[in-house]
Design a protein that fits this description.
The complex is a heterodimer. By secondary structure, chain A is mostly helical. Helices cover 73% and strands 4% of the residues of chain A. In chain A, a hairpin with a 4-residue loop joins strand 2 and strand 3. In chain A, helix 2 packs across helix 10 and helix 4 runs antiparallel to helix 9. Chain B is 69% helix and 1% strand. Chain B contains 17 helices and 2 strands. Chain B has a two-stranded antiparallel ribbon with strand order 1-2. In chain B, helix 5 crosses helix 13. The longest helix of chain B is centred in the last third of the chain and has 27 residues. In chain B, 44% of the residues are buried. The chains are: A mainly alpha, B mainly alpha. The interface between A and B is large, with 53 and 50 residues. Chain B: It comes from Nocardioides renjunii. Chain B: Pfam families: BPD_transp_2 (PF02653). Chain B: Its main location: membrane. Chain B: It is found in: Cell membrane.
Chain lengths: 323, 379
């Protein structure tokens, strides 16, 4: 128990927590949307994120972007990496749906089987980067941590006066980027025609299909959107932490899922609240106790929330049609 | 004679088995069990090709058999939770670890817990809790853990349970790794006790070299546990589990106390997992946190589901395949997880009811498929 370490750097730790939480929140969107529509935990979603981080590395390597690149190169490489990561992650998510979930849906298999095929896909994706690609191309693929060049160099943008907190450009980009993406998705689901289809299927799949909503298409859309958000999260993650690894998705996936449940799974705004909260709680906990206990925090928080508020802080609501 | 045979023809294997005379069934079962006990010495060509120690780098055949049987015990225990009660437990490795750690913590003279007991009560340096008492300790510890985990979470919907149990498995491992002064941290605990027995050839009866004795011990325990779970399955409790698995709300309306029976399933499954962990830790004579990664939990669930959840023969087949095949094809070691993932997806997509499903389950799957098709045709 070390409260002094927490109190003395409270502002710094809060900012750190919010940065982490933004990434959790973006990944959590994928879980929450799929859950909202299919009542299914997509176990392979963490690997969709992992594919995104590798795509970012690939784009940087092809373009030759490194730490000292010119400003034009930095912006170009980052934007290209963003688009590529979104496409790759969305594609992976779609492939998972096609291969592992759709055939089972047609057979009316019970939920347990979906979970198992999800785990299977997750293992296949992890091993693709840990073993298969290494066998053909060699490093950087393999079972080691890989560095990603920090193309966007960290600089202090401004200092918040009074509490003397230095805000860096990378943190600012992550927080603003995550919130903008989430707002965009929220607007899309609540305002657009396609979004209405998503909400309809979430609320009552049978009635929705009677009203002419193509359920298969809605489910594909949900996987694509969730995957794209994981792609954005992957880029933001590499900007902050500069690494990737074949099994990097696992722990982030667990955290993101916890965030989704915390806010109320199936609720897009809940994912944001849950993600930010979990990030902050985690950083605080790692200061008070030991950082080796950080990963336990998420689980303890999850159990506590489920015990007292089984539907999360904001409740389930993708199906509650508004507007 | 031919009329008798005719009535057998066209029936499925399971039906034929059911309509066979009781004496014949007993005889065949005895034969299978006897063969299982003989397996470590299997040396008749061409059957000997199933051995895993054919090439010099292969692993010891009797040790592999032991591991297969330990995982079979795990699968039978997990089958109570997943197959009968329909609760998805992704943290089963936590109970397995608790069993292994219980015997290590209380039975090993070098464990911090035993050392504390020694200094507290002024006992000699080599004193430790005897193996026979470690067994109830391990079972009780995992049973209590099952109740502690189950009591707050079993009221939740099934999907949440999966994640909470997953978290539980990780918490156990991380705790074991971080509590240096209780569990020995990442270094683990050595000198885990073995069952007592007469000395043979100057070695204690249960040692690291003669693995076939471990295998026979595990096999006896497996047979007892199979018998017990089969008794349970056909009791009032078992029928309550099936009712909950099929439709919890309907079961509740009919007066089945869902929570109580779910907790029972959870606790029984947990204690069987603890017992399997105890066997594993005792045979290794060494326990460390890295032996209990979450992948093992997924492997356990896969055994139950691939084999055919709800059916004892099915889960035994699942446990056998998923333990034996990787050992037999060790030269492809690096590709094992990849092959495992591909197999998991393929088997489940092509045969969601498992390889050897229970008949009741198979019929349910058939029903659901029809319903799905009709729903698709309606739209």
């Amino acid at each position: 128990m070390d409260f002094d370490a927490l109190i003395s750097g409270l502002d710094r730790h809060t900012l750190d927590g919010i940065t982490r939480g933004s990434i959790y929140a973006l990944v959590a969107l994928g879980y929450t949307m799929v859950y909202g529509v299919m009542k299914l935990i997509n176990f392979a979603h963490s690997e969709v994120f992992m594919v995104g981080t590798w795509t970012v590395l690939g784009v940087y390597t092809v373009l030759g972007a490194t730490a000292g690149s010119s400003i034009g190169m930095v912006i170009g490489a980052t934007l290209l990496a963003l688009i590529a990561a979104m496409l790759a992650s969305a594609g992976t998510a779609l492939a998972v749906e096609r291969i592992a979930y759709r055939p089972l849906r047609k057979k009316g298999a019970p939920p347990l089987i979906f979970l198992i095929t999800g785990i299977g896909c997750s293992i296949v994706l992890v091993e693709t980067f840990g073993q298969v690609l290494r066998a053909f191309f060699g490093p950087p693929f393999g079972r080691v941590t890989v560095n990603i060049p920090s193309v966007l160099e960290t600089k202090v943008v401004f200092t918040i006066p009074g509490i003397d907190l230095a805000v860096t450009n990378t943190r600012l980009l992550i927080i603003i980027g995550a919130i903008v993406m989430m707002l965009a998705l929220d607007t899309f689901v609540n305002k657009s025609r396609l979004g209405r289809g998503v909400r309809a299927v979430a609320q009552d799949p049978d009635t929705a299909s009677l009203m002419g909503v193509n359920q298969d298409r809605v489910i594909m859309l949900v996987f694509v959107l969730g995957g794209a958000m994981a792609g954005v999260a992957a880029l933001l993650f590499t900007i902050q932490y500069d690494i990737t690894k074949f099994d990097i998705g696992f722990i982030i996936g667990i955290k993101a899922f916890t965030a989704a449940v915390l806010g109320g799974i199936g609720n897009l705004r809940g994912a944001l609240v849950g993600g930010l909260l979990l990030g902050v709680v985690e950083v605080y906990a790692s200061q008070i106790w030991d950082s080796s206990w950080t990963d336990v925090t998420a689980f303890v928080v999850l159990v506590l929330v489920l015990m007292f508020r089984p539907t999360g802080l904001l409740g389930e609501s993708l199906g509650k049609a508004r507007a | 004679m031919s009329t008798i045979m005719d009535s057998y023809r066209g029936l499925k294997l399971g039906n034929r088995w059911d309509s066979a005379p009781r004496l014949f069934k007993m005889f065949l079962l005895l034969l299978v069990v006897a063969f299982a006990f003989y397996l470590p010495y299997l040396n008749i060509l061409p059957f000997a090709y199933v051995r895993t120690d054919l090439n010099p780098t292969g692993s010891d055949w009797a040790s592999v058999l032991f591991l297969i049987v330990v995982y079979m015990i795990v699968a039978v225990g997990l089958n109570v939770v997943i197959g009968l009660a329909g609760l998805l437990d992704l943290g089963y490795v936590g109970f397995y670890a608790l069993g292994a750690y219980s015997v290590a913590l209380f039975g090993s003279p070098s464990s911090p817990v035993v050392e504390a007991l020694q200094s507290r009560f002024g006992l000699s340096e080599d004193w430790a809790v005897p193996f026979a008492i470690c067994i109830p300790i391990a079972i009780t510890m995992s049973l209590i853990a099952g109740v502690i985990l189950g009591a707050p979470t079993l009221r939740l919907r099934g999907d949440y349970l999966a994640i909470v149990t997953l978290g539980f498995g990780e918490i156990i491992r991380i705790t074991a790794r971080n509590l240096d002064n209780v569990t020995g941290g990442a270094a683990g605990i050595t000198q885990v006790p073995v069952p007592p027995g007469p000395e043979v050839d100057g070695r204690s009866f249960f040692n690291t070299i003669d693995a076939e004795r471990w295998y026979w011990l595990a096999l006896v325990i497996l047979l007892i546990i199979i018998w017990l779970t089969l008794r349970l399955e056909h009791s009032r409790v078992g029928r309550a589990w099936l009712a909950i698995r099929e439709d919890e709300d309907a079961a509740a309306v009919m007066g089945v106390a869902g929570f109580k029976f779910k907790l029972w399933a959870f606790a029984i499954g947990a204690s069987v997992g603890g017992l399997a962990g105890l066997l594993f830790g005792s045979k290794q004579q060494y326990v460390e946190p890295n032996a209990f990664m979450l992948n093992l939990s997924f492997l356990f669930v896969a055994m139950v589901v691939i084999g055919g959840s709800g059916n004892v023969v099915g889960v035994l087949v699942g446990a056998f395949l998923l333990t034996y095949l990787p050992e037999r094809f060790r030269e492809l070691q690096e590709w094992r997880p990849f092959a495992f993932g591909v197999a998991l997806v393929l088997v489940m997509v092509l045969r969601p009811q498992g390889l050897v499903p229970s008949r009741r389950r198979a019929r349910e799957f058939e029903d659901r498929r029809h319903e799905a098709e009709e729903a698709a045709a309606d739209v």
